[in-house]
Amino acid sequence: MAKRPTKRPEGMPSREQVLEFIQSSETPAGKREIARAFGLKGQEKIALKRLLKDMAEEGLIDGKKTAYHRMGGVPKVTVLRVTDIEDGELIAVPDNWSPEAPGKPPRLVLKEAKGRGGKRVSALKRGDRVLARTEERDSGWIAHPMKKLPARTEGLLGVVEIDGSGQAWLAPVDKRIRNSAKIVDLGTAESGQLVLAERIGRSERSGVKVSEIFGDPLAPGSFSLIAIAKHGIRHVFSEEVVEDARRVAALKLSEDRREDLRHLPIIAIDPADARDHDDAIWAEPDGNGGFSAIVAIADVSFYVRPGSALDREARKRGNSVYFPDRVVPMLPEVLSADVCSLRENEDRAAMVCRFSIDSDGQVTNARFSRAIVRIHHNIPYEQAQTVVDGGDAPEYLRHLWGAWRKLEAARHKRDPLELELPERRVVLDDQGQIAEIAVRERLDAHRVVEDFMIAANVAAAKALEAKTAPVVYRVHEPPAREKLLALRDYLATMGKKLALGQVITPSLFNRMLKDVSDEAEKAQVMEAVLRSQTQAYYGPANAGHFGLALGSYAHFTSPIRRYSDLLVHRALVDAYGLEQPKPPGSVPATTGLSDRDRSSLQQISDAISQTERRAMEAERDTIDRYVAAWLSHRVGETFDTRITGVQSFGFFATIVGVGGDGLVPVSTLGSEHFRHDEASQSLIGEDSGTTYSAGDRLKLQLAEANPLTGSLKFVPVDSDGNAIEPRGRREQSRRGGTRRAGKYKVGKRGRPGNIRHQGRRR
Fold first, then answer.
1. Fewest CB within a 10 Å sphere: which of 85, 581, 708, 717?
2. 107 and 125: one domain?
3. Of 566, 585, 619, which one is at a domain's C-terminal end?
4. Which residues have C-beta within 8 Å of that of residue 173, sequence separation ≥ 6?
5. Helix residue ranges, H only, 276-342
């Protein structure tokens, strides 16, 4: 209900009174609500109608008779589009703001995303559309999201196609988009070019116009550019931010307030192609059966200070994004790849975690300080492993491995979740072309670094808790009950039991996997367990880390590439009195948490959780495109695959050792009808009983590989290796001015731009 004025005026309200009522109403204020609020009847309602019309013509109000709002303002309930993340808050503008409207569209801050009935609205990101209730305050416009709306702008990154009649179409590069869009304004774009487009009107039938031309869609670097554009990743630093980075990069380190650890052989073990080095480790025996250890982390908080342009940009980015051919860093390269990067034989500022590892592998006596370090050696994982395995490793490596054996023993006792999740690695040659795609080998060297980092992360969380200081936790909640019920039902189809009356722990899942001896069946169970897990996120409230079997966990070890870690460093600065002398000039004084950091920790955590998910999607999409490009030369070959998911329309499979999910449509499984059993995640042939289940391994023929969308399509083969005849081909019809997106693949010579069109407009 709209608010009634405290004192109802005599007779007709004035323009000012109507405008005040419209602005102060908590709900949409139309002609009926205004008349009711002022007690108008009969002829007064007719006069009110004329007054509202006059106010609209005078430019005082806008809207319609059921919901007016101040001209230049925003309707009480309207559709907004998220445009940015600033200081941890989502910023939106009206989705239907008219170009003819005076001034710029108002910017609204989205508050806690809860919809009708208190149900939380799905996490929002840049580009999302949301129905929201708006409110104008002295500080500006705010909005309360009610419902996330379907995206209207997806698929506007694509390749130009020109049909036989000369009509241009935009073939999307997003495999979720099925139809091409009609291009009304081609500009200077040409057929076969990768372009970004925008819609002409509100309706999808209105067509699109080309707004930016990227060029050859298969040229080296195009796949990551597609992901950057599709996901709205900030990839260009403003001159202000670059200049800010140059200024702080010149700061001198104050030796009198830092430990001098340059004499210790601290080493950084990283991937051979690492773009930055933000962690390094050291250990030596303590004489009591344990070890003294150090984890040294780049002291990014010394350079990136609250309130600076550098900090604001880092907060918006949230994290670095890594592609096979490039990195989109959270910080300008003068910091991320140079001054903050722990490079050998160069003095660097570090935040140091010292701790003891007792004979049982327990971490004790952790303390934090600022230090100057000089990295003794940057060693690739493979090289470190080779040296250790060779038996002639230098003492500092032997000590590290010895300390790790203690940590490893404690890890086994803790029994965190052990899921084998192979990581695909794309290797490019000097020209940016694909040289190899393989699963990254898992070495003890990886585990050494990982367990040292986990120890430091736990120590950071507990150290801040001891001081009742703010903590940005890395939270991984236990599986939700509905997912556990689905897992129980699935396991029951395999003759296995999951009792939900017991406490669900990672050990329970680990024992379940160890009890399965058949590798194919183990893969099925592992897929099911993975589907039951929740997604990790950042937040100031501790809910533990289920996967690692830890009660308190924070991210401390990668502040070059994660804003969460930078916040943890700042909190440690405040909690343990690690502030540095104020530098000369205009550089902000504090390296700890600002008042805004403290008051907005939940909003910032939500925002960086979203940017992390966005980065993961962008990185995965790009790898999928590289895999599809790699396989496009091998269409028609048969591969060993594993089923990763089953739906009523078919199942998805991945090539063992290479990756890339591809669809096997149910229509290609033969002449019989297949029934989808959701509980067992299976497709079951009604005549033969042939079953396709998640985790199954089978041979499939690659039928299509589309580098632009990253999509694959497989067909099953018979005992002789021949493709099974599909049940029948369904004709697709053209509807509403749209058409099916064309399919592309690299030509036989595999050169950029050598594309053949495999589809046609239906």
1. 581
2. yes
3. 619
4. 157, 158, 159, 194, 217, 226, 230, 708, 709
5. 300-303, 309-317, 333
